[in-house]
Design goal:
- By secondary structure, the chain is of the alpha/beta class.
- It folds into three domains: about 200 residues, Rossmann fold; about 80 residues, no CATH class; about 280 residues, Alpha-Beta Horseshoe (pyruvate-formate lyase- activating enzyme).
- The strands form eight sheets. It has a ten-stranded mixed beta sheet with strand order 2-1-3-4-7-8-14-13-12-9, sandwiched between helices. The protein has a three-stranded mixed beta sheet with strand order 24-23-25, with helices on one face.
- The chain is globular and about 75 Å long.
Amino acid sequence: MQAAPDIFSYRKFWAHRFGVAPQLPMSREEMDELGWDSCDVILVTGDAYVDHPSFGMALIGRLIEAQGFRVGIISQPDWTSADDFKQLGKPNLFFGVTGGNMDSMVNRYTSDRRIRSNDAYTADGEGGKRPDRCVVAYSQRCREAFKGVPIIIGGIEASLRRIAHFDYWSEKVRRSVIMDSKADLLVYGNGERQVVDIAHRLAAGEPVSELTDIRGTAFVTKHGQREGWWEKDSTSVDTPGKVNPPIDPYEMKTTTSCDQSQEQNSIADGAQIIHFKRAEIQDKAHTVVRLPSYHLVKDDTVLYAHTSRILHLETNPGNALALVQQHGERDVWLNPPPIPLTTEEMDGVFDLPYSRVAHKQYGDKNIPAYEMIRFSVNIMRGCFGGCTFCSITEHEGRIIQSRSEDSIIKEVEAIRDTTPGFTGVISDLGGPTANMYRLACKSEEIEASCRRLSCVYPGICKNLNTDHTPLINLYRRARSLPGIKKILIASGLRYDLAVLSPDYVKELVTHHVGGYLKIAPEHTEEGPLHQMMKPGIGTYDKFKAMFDKYSKAAGKEQYLIPYFIAAHPGTTDKDMMNLAIWLKRNGFRADQVQAYLPSPMSAAAAMYHSGKDTLHKVRRKGGDIVVPKGIKVRRLHKAFLRYHDPENWPMLREALQKMGRADLIGNGKKHLIPAWQPAGTGGQSEGSRVTRKANRPNGEKLSSNGKSFRTQHVRNSTKPKPKAAKRNRR
C-alpha cells in the first residue's frame, strides 16, 4: 500500500501564534477573548459541541487547530434562516458541514419511521434540534450566508450518501448528497488526511475546484471522460442482467483471426455471449470504473444491487479504483479511499488538547451521549467483520487502525485526573469492536490486494493474525494504574475471534465483565446469518461454554446478553419462529427489540431494496432472497422476539396456525405461547378472554415492552435486569 504524508508533517499556518483555545469558540465574544478577528475554518454540526475525541467535530476541529488554523464551531443552528450561520463571521478558508456523529435520519426516526421524542446528542436530550438530512439543509444556509465560500461536507451522513443511495425513509433512491447539497467537496471516511490537505492547499491559494486528486473525497464534474483517464464500465466487472451484455469499448481483440479473437456460445434462449480478450490495465492510478447512472439505478433495482456490490468491492485502499456515476449532465467522481492512519498518527490525533467536557455554553445541562462515553477510551477504529447491516466498513474501512498502548494509558490517566465525576471505573476500552485491537493481515502485500468483503466470514481467513496478546497486555496495564478500580469492556465483542484465544476470554471474564457481557449472534438460522455475514450459532455456544467455565473459575456469577435482529433481508417467518423457540429453550426474554433498519449504502440495504443477494454476482434471473417488508410482517418478526409478551400472542397464534405449527400453542413447557389470553391484552376485551388467569404457566413472569433504537437486548428471565451500558454495534 502506498505511503501518505504524515498528517502532522505540514508546516503550520501562521495563525498558530494565537495558541490553543481552551475550547473551540462558538461565539464572537469567545473569538474576541482569543484575539481573533476571524475564523479560518468554521465547522457546522448537528450535534451539541463536546470537546472530546469521541465527537467527530471536536476531533476534526482540534486537528485543524493543530495545523495552525483558527477553528470555530456552529452547533445545531436554526436552519430556517441564514442568521445563525453568520454568527462567527465569514470563514477565510471553508465551511465544514456534518450532520453529527449519526446520520440525521437514523437519529430522528425509528425503524418504523416514527419521530423520536429525544436526541442523545443534544443538551438535555431535547428532540427536534436538527433538520432531516442535516448536511443538505446546513450547506444551503451556509451558501446563503456567505456566497463564494467553499463548502466541504463530511461525517457519517455524507460518507454513507456519497453516491446514489436507497433512502429507507422516502422508499426511493436519492441522488448523491453532494448533488443535493451543492457542496464543493465531499469527504468520506474519518477524514483526517483529507481535511488537513484541503486546509493547507486552500490556504496556499489553490481554488477548491482544483482539489480533485485527494483520496477519500468526492466531487462533481461535467459529464464525460476526463482527459488522461482510462474508463471501465462496471458491468464488465460484474455483469448484471442479460447474458449478452453491451460490449465494453475498452475490451479489444488482439488478433484478426476469428478463432483467436472471439468465441460464440449458444445459450438456451437463443442469445449469445461474445468473449473478448481483455486489454491489461496499464495505469491503475488513472483508471476509473463507471457505475450505472443515477437515472438508471433509481428505477432499476437490479442495477442498484449491482452498483452497491461494485462499490463494496472497491473499498480496499491498496487496490481500489476511482468510481464515477452520472447524475444528469454532471458526474459524481469518487477518488479511492484514504490511506489508513499509522499508529503514530492515531496517537497524535487522540493526544490533542481536548478539554473532555461539553462546551461551557451548555452550563449544567446533560448531554446523554457524552454521559455514555465520558469515562470510555477509543483504542482503535475500523472493522473487518463485514456485517452487511452495519455501515462501519463503508465509513471507517476494513483495515484496523490502532493506537499505541502508551497513548491509551495516557488517556486513561487524563480521565482519572481531569474528568468531573470519575469514580475509578473506566466504562470501556474499545471501539467499533472490543477485540480487533492490532489485528491485521499477516502480509501487507496480501492485504493490499485482497478483495474479500470480510476477513472472518464464511470462516476466519488463514492470513489473519488473531493474536490477542497485545490486548491482554493493555488490559493488565490499564487496570494496574493507581486510582483505577475497574476496567469494563462495553464495546461489542467479536466472539468468533475471541474463541481462538482462550487466554483472552479468561482475562476478559475474570477481570473486565461487570456481571453482564453483551454479544451479538444476531440470529440462529443459516438463511439470515448468511445474508448478515455472521457466524453460525454454534460459535456462540462455544463462546458461552468458555464464558461459563472462566466465570465459575473466578467465582463469579456472570451472564451473557445476546442481541438479535428482526426482519433482516433473508429472514423468513419460519426463521423467526425457530429463533423464538431457541430463546424460550434457553430461558431468554427480549426486553428491547428492533426490526432491521436499512442504513444508507450498506450491503443489506441494497438487499432490502432489490431482493437480490449482493454477496454474489448480481443477475436478473436468480439470486433472489426473501425480504420482510411492510409493517405487518415486520411487526410479526418483532413479535417472535417478544414471544412472552401477551400483547403479541393473538398475532403469533394466527401466524403459527397459518404456518402449520399450531403444536406450539398450548400451556406446557414445550409450547411457545399459551392458548389463554389475559384480560385487557392483545386487543381482547374483558368479555372475550379465552381462559382464566389460573391457567397461566407456573412461574412465568411478564416483561415490560421496552423500546430500543439500535440494539436488541435479550436477558435471562430469572436474572436481574442489567445496568444500562453503551452499545456499539458492529
